[in-house]
Fold:
Amino acid sequence: MIDAKVSPLAGMATKFALQASLTLSDQAALLALPHATRFFEAGSYMMREGDTPAYFGTIVSGIVCGHKTSGDGQRQMTSLHNPEDLFGIHTLYLESLDHNVQSLTRSEVVTIPLTALRDLAKNSAAIACAIASIVMVDISASRAWLLNISRRDARARVAHLLCELAVRLDRPGQAAEVTYDLPITQEQMADAVGLTSVHINRTLKYLSLSGLVHHSKSGVVIPNWNNLVDFADFNSRYLHIKGNVSPLSRN
Amino acid sequence: MIDAKVSPLAGMATKFALQASLTLSDQAALLALPHATRFFEAGSYMMREGDTPAYFGTIVSGIVCGHKTSGDGQRQMTSLHNPEDLFGIHTLYLESLDHNVQSLTRSEVVTIPLTALRDLAKNSAAIACAIASIVMVDISASRAWLLNISRRDARARVAHLLCELAVRLDRPGQAAEVTYDLPITQEQMADAVGLTSVHINRTLKYLSLSGLVHHSKSGVVIPNWNNLVDFADFNSRYLHIKGNVSPLSRN
DNA sequence: CGGAATGTTGAACCGTTTCAAACGGAGTGG
DNA sequence: CCACTCCGTTTGAAACGGTTCAACATTCCG
Structure:
């Protein structure tokens, strides 16, 4: 099995292994991928729309987002990546990037050239399947965001986002209260859910006053997980977490 | 090369071949996939959220959509499929469906069991890569919908959708005027772009009055392609059409 | 300590929704 | 062939949710 101590690529290799059954040589090949550790300041671009995709990576620390901007400069995030998440793998076979990737906080990432992964996938059906599988999970999340942004009001919308992050950070499941770090600004949150930072402010105030969630620099506190899930109309199925116990992600 | 006359699967096989270089035996294997021709009445469900994915397919005729619904019954389409498009392939490696697939008009489709494709992908890296590639193109479109719905007003939003469909139906490129069929109701269009059918009505009226697009039972007429593209802030890059001449898709 | 970035609040405004009513066309049955 | 119905379209008026603009408070950071 993959030993998490061995390599900064171990997390990435594990993600692959979760999606398809890999031979030992496939696992070894993944761990042998050329890679570099890089640091990005908050707000710096890791990739830009229109670029030729060059690498993908795993996040070691920090928060990274994918986003697009409209002609008049408005921005919409399309994904949010936490430590241990992969980013950029969607673009493995795209000739040009359709979105930007930017760090929201100072972050450390391990980057891997796409050419190297392409070579691997060309020779291993299992690895290619794992990649396809990873992208399928991501497109499912993308569809969930679409619904969230188009059909839920501001309150449920940010509640839903906070639920998603809780589940992805593996927090719920034990007690009623759920807690995690989320060092992003209200403006960044606005770009994630398609609102204004002013309205995010009012919405967070409402959610806090009604005891559903508290968000501050010290993190997110969800006093009662089930309450928030109900309020947000949240169902974690779309995250396709393997071995997920309850499809409703209520305790 | 793949002969379009041979099999109802030829279109599907060609889509795969466009994304990865397939050996002749890969191509033959794709064409040999078990399949069935099926008809669906307008409005009938081909797959439902929560189901275990069973098949994918190509559309022969008709229009099919993917959609999700929120707890209070509001609906948001996540994709629209025209003849020759694939549907359901996103779910190849998902344990449960995260969205519904429904026909908007009476439609004829060719369905292929996912198990058969999984077997093929397991043994051919090229086919697995083609699948990954197809999904990557789709997730790119999904991101574009996200931006469209969250950050453009109703007018630009429906204009953008009509641009996308024009390009995907391969209409623009020759003359300034662009025409195509789009036998969907205003309510269906509303579900595609995240608006109300009432507001779609007013928006279409505006677009028609200003000479940008006309939509009726007889189809879509775009008197001047470049005008609509500018108005909609449309750039076809996100569709990743191979061999696409102009990334801006202006003539 | 000072300046910039982020958060907070109020008031006016505006795009979209909601509700309600009426209209038109296609299909059906008498 | 007309009357009836159903479904989608059209229009108006009022209400609502979120934006915009502007001012001020707070926190962060060099």
